[in-house]
Recover the amino acids of this structure.
């Protein structure tokens, strides 16, 4: 008789993955929206504090955004890796229990 793990045993991991995926999707949408606003406001200095002229500031802002997105991606990747590792450990434990029955 083979004992299969119940689906509920892994639901917290699935929920976390779904939540992280939704958060990542939301972030991508926000970045896309900001890029569109920046592209549409290329000649409009009203978005800049004090009406500064655009120059290197656009490049600096985009560089900061890029760096922060890379950091965020690294954090998400590390979290997903940890979740996968935990999931694999639990699955291994369940399989060991099932094989001894």
């Amino acid at each position: 008789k083979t004992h299969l793990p119940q689906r509920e045993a892994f639901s917290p991991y699935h929920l976390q993955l779904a939540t992280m995926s939704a958060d990542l999707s939301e972030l991508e949408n926000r970045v896309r929206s900001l890029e569109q606003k920046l592209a549409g406001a290329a000649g409009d200095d009203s978005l800049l504090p004090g009406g500064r002229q655009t120059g290197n500031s656009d490049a600096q802002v985009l560089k900061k955004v890029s760096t922060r997105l890379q950091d965020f991606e690294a954090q998400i990747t590390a979290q997903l890796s940890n979740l996968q590792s935990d999931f694999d450990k639990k699955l291994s434990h369940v399989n060991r229990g099932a094989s001894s029955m």
Observations:
- Helices lie at 11-40, 56-99.
- The chain is about 75% helix and 0% strand.
